[in-house]
Amino acid sequence: MKCEIEMEMRSCAACGVVMAANSTFFYNRREDHKEFYCLNGHSNYYPQKSDAEKLREELAQEKKKARELQIQLDKAVMPKKRGRPRKQLTPLK
Length: 93
Fold this sequence. Notes:
Blueprint (H helix, E strand, L loop, with lengths): L6 E5 L6 E5 H10 L3 E2 L5 E2 L6 H27 L16
Antiparallel strand pairs: 1-2, 3-4
């Protein structure tokens, strides 16, 4: 039986000690921004937004723009009512 694990190496931001963990570990920390510790106990984390977070924000902005453009289009296409407003009919008693 053969088992291969892909490892990544990172250095501690505080002391520079090199640490290694599987690629999934560092990927998960970039995504969830949780702390992880070096061998000397220093806390490390990834504060910047991940690629997935950036894409989600970009998608949300594009959806917002699309909604705003649709509202503008609807206003431009719909004919405006002219004349005096009609009285509302009420049921007979």
